[in-house]
Amino acid sequence: MDLFLQLLLNGIWAGSIYALLGVSWGLIFAASRTFHFAHGATFIIGAYFTYIIDSVLGVGLIVASAGGILAAILFGLAIEGILYRWLRRAYATPLVIFIASLGALIFVENNIAMFFGTDAKTLSGFPIKVIKVGNVGFTTLHLTMLFTAVILIWGLMLFLMKTGQGKAIRAVISNPEMAEVIGIDIKRVFLLVYAISSILVASAAILVTLERGATPELGHWAILYAFIPVIIGGVGSLPGAALAGLIIGLAESIGIWKIPSQWQLGIAFVILLFVLIIRPSGLFGFSVYRGKI
Amino acid sequence: MDYIIHILIMICIYSILGVSFNLILGYTGLIAMCHAAFFGIGAYTAALFGIHFGVNFLIGIVAGMVVTGIIGLLVALPAIRVRDEYLIVTTLALLMIIYTVMMNWIDVTRGAAGLTGIPRPRLLGLEISTPAQFLPLMAIFGLLCFLISRRIVTSPFGRALKALREDEVAAQALGKNITSFKIRVFVIGGALAAVAGGLFAHYMAYISPFYFTLTESIFIFAVVIIGGAANLWGPVLGAFLLVSITEVLRFMAISPLIVGFTRQMAYGLILILFMCFRPQGLLGEFGRKRQGGEEISDEGEGEGLAKRQLQLSQAEHLFGTPSEETVEAEGSLLELDGVSRSFGGIQAVRGCTLSLKQGKITGLIGPNGAGKTTLFNMITGLHPSQKGTIRFENREITRSSPHLIPSIGIGRSFQELRLFHRMTVLDNVLVACPHQTGERIWGAFFRFRKVKEEETANRDRAMAYLKFVGLEEKAQELAEDLSFPEQKLLSLARLLATEAKLMLLDEPTSGLDPVFMESLYPMIKELVRYGKTVCIVEHNMDVIRAVVDEVIFLNQGQVLARGTPEEIMNAPQLAEIYFGS
Amino acid sequence: MLLEVKKLVSGYQKKGVLRRVSLDVAEGEIVGVIGHNGAGKTTLLKSIFGLLHPWAGEVIYGGKDITGRSTALNVRDGLSYMPQGQGLFPDLSVIDNLQLGDYGLGKTGSIVSLDQAFELFPILKDRRAQKAGTLSGGEQRMLSLGITLMQSPNLLFLDEPSLGLGPVIVQHVMETIKEINSRFETAIMIVEQNIDAASMLVNRFFIIKIGQIVFSGSSDIAQDKRRLWELF
Question: Which class does domain C3-84+153-231 fall in?
Fold first, then answer.
């Protein structure tokens, strides 16, 4: 029983990260219908800029994190505002934009690898204390992961539901043609979406770096765990993506019990295939998804 | 010298990878992220066979193809069936899983340390060990893969692939099983990548998971895209350029560690630049949506009319001799009984019952939103009927798959035409010809003569259909270059080529000027003389009066009336409904 | 004239649809554009409103040349457009939909208050918290109309407001449109296939066929049905 509880908790921490990743990408995909592969680059930029500010300037984790998040926001804005917008203006097909996104990911990832090397970079300034409750244990970092995910995702939902800008984003997600008709500046909405998404994904990046250090390949891992919850949860449903992230975290953690750890990734994959066969629109998403690549 | 040979060998390997991926991405439009995984599975399988079983390397390569094929099939089936974007995520997951397996299944793969001691290939008693000895082997395999790819692309199978890439819905309406095509291409492309993997393993004599990462997959993307997707030589050129650039960078870089990163940064940047400035690659043609206006020519429509005089001899050649007795088969060809369909909360068709008489031209009219096109979609399986039955020649076809409809004997044209824009006029019609042996892989590769015979016959028929509509001189032009009226004619020719007994024409004259419209009337009427049954959805009363035998009036998803055009137009209550009440 | 369209030529990619279309709308007037499918009705509205960029010709609004201008600017200047079909945000609540109506107006905001909107569309008040996609066809059309109303338009473009609705609801929709016109002095260009429905409101007609205006005149045309079959 204790073991089960421990596994459950482990799953929650991992699920929190997956939820953050899923929601951050799901927002972009729902609003702009772009398969933003370079999201992985945003992730590692968030991680590494935090690292460099922390290790070089030594201003403490909070300031470093702010810097890392800011860098991620700027990157996200640049990709959408410069690259994607340019391509759209040149009537590029979604496939072309996708490939440019791939190129951006590769470019950024290898730049970082070249400057920082491929060894794992860690962050200082977060005293990790172990907490034991009965026979299960976790750390303050784990709690932070959960809190961050809850606060950011909840905050995002509040923003979308209650504010004018948030409503505009929801309008674009719901019916982009109509949004243009009533005079919503779609370009600005896109920029806002990318900025918000960067905050979430960079936060996840910082947390992951604290847990196990940052490596350039983390970008690949991040996008995979950004895509899968969105597909499983259903495109267009941000709570769905968050929930799906949590489910994947739990399933992986409990699955480790019986399966050798190298097959862990297979668990998410099996769930994905399962959902594709049984309920392709995802557990909670739109039943009719507009647009395709 | 050895170094140059090494480069050539790598170019061969990446040519195979590029050519095989081009089949998947370029020719079919499937975005698969897992090509490096197929490469890797082929490599590891061949290596393990060589190390543990000591068999001839060819067997190892074939084993790699089989394993890859099976895995590819298992992944493609659920993903492709649903939507293509899910393929991106599914193949990405597959890639990562295979990588994880390679890293962690230490017993078998030795994990990060990699597999060493892969034996040298033996062919005809000779052991192939030096690069100079490998090169001919690689070149032969490269050529083989290239030829296989070429055969696929130039065969009727490849033509159907192109149509599928242009417009899936239209391809399906012509009888192509889209999912089956996509899965076949995916599996074949993967198997060819496995060949490259096997060769790679035997050449390098050492492989490790680091060769088969996402970065590698993206490199293969670059090979295809930069050379030019959907172009046979594109990937070869791409392989040549990218491998060369890699090696050049190797000389320029300071430390060996930096080389890898610089190379990858370079091609990441190249990808971006190409997408911004030359998405079609160096050789190919894809990537930009056509935009921009064109002057509408008001003149010149009349001169085309002379050419569009009906070629009666053509019609006989195509449809057989007209028979006065054809009409003797009285009775309904198509019967709808109480069919219904709703979308979301809106009932588009409710309890609709009608029948189309054999050998007659029936017009389907009604106000906007009455359900006319929906009815066509229901008959052809695009939006299956939720209630009621549909019978064709007395057989029930109520919820048939869309791609089976043409073989049942029903063909349709689309309001929005849905032509295959980047294919030639002739190809547009050829794709529609039924029962093509060359559309099956077995047929394309092992029944050369039959396929060739069918092609010749089909070509003749296609040209005859084009002559029938007056487009024979434009046979080699791209469909997108035709004028709008010409495109309408092509749509009709393509429909005719399906040899359907029942032809559903969805607003065949919309957007045409009156002069042109009139040239269509005799064409449509001629079809009936040759035993076809036609149903036209129309808004234009001139057309109805000129061509149609019987009119069915549809409103709010139900049949309100049926009769001759005069009867319908003289009924005041129908006029009320049509023009408003 | 509030709106003058002069020799507009427009279409999609290679396909030309409108061939030198000219028409006009006076202040506070209701004008109908009638034609069947494919005649170019929607293309016309989109080309005027800015969703499509015309290839040639001019659109003059209040004396200003607005040809091809962005929709955002047009909305700010008092133009509003109700698209064909689902002109609303199905995943948002009714009240959110309406409030978005004045989003495009920027700082000035709407002169039409939510209460006034609910007065005109009582059914929406009952369903204010419901997701717009769950409303019935007629209610959705009312909501679409309500959204445009919230934009306090001087000139309103309606694309087939009667599409897919039963006769009773069409009547109701038309009456509401008339009310908007009289209460807020909004000029209206209504595109329709349903002549009788439109003739309840319209002062003047234009009939469009294959991208050209083939008739313009007063609404007596609705009486002569025989002639209509021909013009169509």
Answer: alpha beta
